[in-house]
Design goal:
The protein is α+β, with helices and mostly antiparallel strands. It contains five helices and eight strands; from the N terminus they run E-H-H-E-H-E-E-H-E-H-E-E-E. The longest helix is centred in the middle third of the chain and has 13 residues. The protein is globular.
């Protein structure tokens, strides 16, 4: 069973949950609005206390930060996503996650560049994805707060994923200097 390290944004489900419920399979798996930082992560049975401790350390060295989703983007013609405005703290937590887990490149190393994004629609028709984009554009920008890292694992089937651990961002401004 696969797993992932994500930034979870449960408050965004009130804004985009209907779209994701219809058009993003991960919503039916039990994964709310999120940005995947490492997917795939360790197979579920190989998630060790040591791996989780490393996730905790990355999170504890991070301050909560604002995230502002201000544009849409596309992968191909059938996947539309929300993109965050530039945010150095997001870039920093991404870089630290990737450095902490070089054995788990994002998306298995399939892509040359990591693009932080929140999927709205994937695996549907191009028209459904365009309709989802048209539906969300009037809501932009959407602001939220990144407050921690979440590890999820399970099967890509309805209700198949569970939270393995939640690790809050606990660094204080003075501890980052």
């Amino acid at each position: 069973m696969p797993s992932a390290v994500i930034l979870s944004f449960p408050d965004l489900d009130a804004v985009i949950g209907d779209i994701r419920d219809r058009l993003d399979p991960s919503a039916s798996w039990g994964i709310g609005a999120h940005v995947s930082l490492i997917y795939p992560f360790a197979r579920a049975r190989r998630i060790t206390p040591e791996l989780l401790e490393t996730v905790r350390r990355v999170a504890s060295a991070t301050q909560p930060f604002d995230v502002r989703f201000d544009h849409t983007g596309w992968f191909g013609e059938e996947t539309v996503w929300l993109g965050p405005a530039p945010q150095p703290r997001l870039d920093d937590v991404v870089a630290r996650c990737l450095a902490a887990f070089p054995q788990y490149p994002p998306y298995g190393g399939e892509f040359d560049e990591f693009v932080p994004h929140l999927t709205l629609a994937t695996g549907n028709s191009a028209q459904e994805a365009k309709d989802a984009e048209r539906e969300v554009l009037p809501e932009l920008p959407i602001s939220t707060m990144a407050t921690g890292l979440t590890v999820v694992a399970g099967a890509p089937e309805p209700g198949g994923f569970d939270v393995v651990g939640e690790y809050p961002f606990t660094a204080r401004e003075d501890s980052l200097r």
